[in-house]
Amino acid sequence: MARHILTLKNLGEKASWLLVQQAMGMPDAKTRTNFMNERVAMLMFTDYSLPERLCVSAAVRQMGGAVVYEGNRNVWRRELAAFREQLMPIFSYYVDCLYTYGLPVASWNPDRLALRFPIINAGSPDAHPAHALADIASMLRNSKDLRNVTCAWIGCHNGTLHSLVTATEWFRFNLRIALPPHVNATSLKEEAARMGSKIEFVDTPEQAVQGADYISVGCRGGLTAEEYDDWSVSEDLLAKAKPHARVMLGAAPADAIMVSSNIMRNGKTSMLAQQSEYRLRMHKRMLHWAFLDNDDDV
């Protein structure tokens, strides 16, 4: 039966740790192989995202595979929603794996369809396993041990934040979350409460970054003009974190809360380049995991 990567919860602790360790152990993120030779990956994106399309396409192509891209056309979205169980098995005649982007996946049960190809979630409103694991690998590269590390999240929630919440149970870092006032955080707080890990919700960015080791910048959707400056990541805000705190983007640059250009240009503070590297590493390791016959309990 095909292996699928939709959410971190479905992936599990052992596989999550394995992927992080393998991604960190890769000698070069851009290494070219023939692992995906004669394999075709289909990218079904309900929303356009250049960073996600570039990263997934690069991973597949650098491993010798081919990519078919289908953008945000309403017709197939309706068809897939109405006839998922009928359409998915048909795809196996044409492609070897399927990437989805923008489709909520938490309620999917692909095992019920007995698919012969893996489905990998390249980002959805409720989960983003590749981003979360890649960012954890980046933090481990710099901090080695995450048990005393605090990661602050500033901005609206998205799939990356949902996956980071799940990851706190296994990787044991502290997560402090500041969401804008208009965001309904009920379901996220319920999810965090089930984890039993060190997750704290605060009201302001200043509270979130206080003494933090890493700052993950989320989406700015819905912020008013009056709120915009208060939720931007400035050098003054960064000064409230630990002296060598680093800044990550938890959303696409075009959608993220504004970060000072001085911070983004500072190679010792901005982790954007490192995040890009580790997301490429992670997608390659995910392809290996999805296709190789490893132990069933991994």
From TrEMBL:
One of its GO terms (molecular function) is amino acid binding. Residues 148-288 form the Aspartate/ornithine carbamoyltransferase Asp/Orn-binding domain. The lineage of its organism: Bacteria, Pseudomonadati, Thermodesulfobacteriota, Desulfovibrionia, Desulfovibrionales. It comes from the Bacteria. This is Aspartate/ornithine carbamoyltransferase Asp/Orn-binding region. Residues 3-139 form the Aspartate/ornithine carbamoyltransferase carbamoyl-P binding domain. One of its GO terms (biological process) is citrulline biosynthetic process. It comes from uncultured Desulfovibrio sp. Keywords: Transferase. The keyword Transferase applies.
